[in-house]
Amino acid sequence: MDRLTSMGAFVMAAEAGSYASAALRLGMSPQMVAKHVAALEQRLGARLLNRTTRRQSLTELGSAYYERCKHILSEAQAADSLAQIMNETPRGKLKVSAPVTFGSYSLMPLVTDFLRLYPEVEIDLHLTDRFVDLVEEGFEVAFRIGPLGTSSLTARPLAPYRLVTCASPRYLTAHGTPRTPADLEQHECLGYAYWSRPADREWQFVQGDTLHKVQVASRLQVNESRALMSAALDGFGIVLGPEDFLRPALQSGELVRVLADYQPPSRQMHLLYTASRQRTAKLRCFVETVLGRFAEA
Fold first, then answer.
1. What is one Gene Ontology biological process annotated in the Swiss-Prot or TrEMBL record (predicted)?
2. Which residues contact 224 (CB under 8 A, 6 or more apart)?
């Protein structure tokens, strides 16, 4: 058996947790995954995986071998990409990560335009509010909202992610319109629950050089923006959300902006990719397209 293919099957089996799950991701049968792993074990003369009817785990050798296999497979992929680097035509699959709301509403038009422009490219877009590890999880590029920590990744600044505060006319008629951020303490405020942390209880606003902080009551916390907007449209409370996402409801009058004299702080946004990764034509063109549409003014 081809040793690289066997290594790929072993790595996927270790990450997926079972031969069946690995088989689905690799497009082969569970029996074939088992044969690839068995071939490696026979070559090494030792077990790589401990398997029972309920679970599987890496042996001590398997854990060390897994890390080396990941490195070897990454280097093999980099070697294969050399042909693409020398070929100016973008082609192949590009694995991208983006936050859920930004990816669903702001990024998707760019993705479809990019695919129309480059018909030999495929995009595997993963939408998650979790901070993915580009190297460990095999992403070539990721969008990230919020401050960046220390990292070896290349970070290209994009236009800030702007937020607005709004509510339905029905809510404002029933509960009144807040005039200052402090008034929000007396209102029902809708909280966005992030994957990695609780919903923000402190909302911040800027007016001139003054920063206003207010502790809001969020009895409803949702980890999906459409559901949060549905609650706002139903007249349940005030929502603080992405301007691009809320713009159609604001333009139709279904939602009304409040505290227009106070601007919620914009959030930093960056496009990240591995500095050491070979710049294939598909990645280079995607980065250029993103910067052309979302770069800072």
1. DNA-templated transcription
2. 100
For residue 229, which of 203, 255, 200 has the smallest C-alpha distance?
255
Of residues 258 and 52, the one with the higher pLDDT is 258
Average pLDDT over residues 83-109: 85
Judge residue 174's burial from the number of C-beta atoms within 10 Å of its C-beta, 0-12 exposed, 13-18 middle, 19 or more buried: exposed
Q: What are phi and psi of 119, to 5 degrees?
A: -70, -15
The angle formed by the CA atoms of residues 207, 204 and 295, to the nearest 5 degrees, is 80
Inform me whether the pLDDT recorded for 196 exceeds 60.
Answer: no
Alpha carbon 283 to its chain centroid, in Å, reads 17
Amino acid of residue 241: G
227, 190 Cβ separation under 8 angstroms:
no
Q: How far apart are CA 155 and CA 158, in angstroms?
A: 9
Strands 56-58 and 49-51, how do they pair? Answer: antiparallel
Helix (H, G, I), strand (E, B) or coil at 11: helix
Burial label for 51, CB within 10 Å (0-12, 13-18, 19+), is middle
- What is the Cα–Cα distance from 238 to 73, expressed in whole angstroms? 49
pLDDT of the residue at 10 = 93
| Cα first-last separation, the chain | 54
Residue 122 has a pLDDT of 94
Greatest pairwise CA separation for the chain in angstroms: 75
The values of phi and psi at residue 24, to 5°, are: -60, -40
Q: Which domains does the chain have, with CATH numbers?
A: 3-80 (1.10.10.10), 89-159+268-294 (3.40.190.10), 163-265 (3.40.190.10)
Q: What count of other Cβ atoms lies within 10 Å of the Cβ of residue 169?
A: 13
Question: Any residues with CB less than 8 A from the CB of 131 and at least 6 apart, and which?
Answer: 144, 196
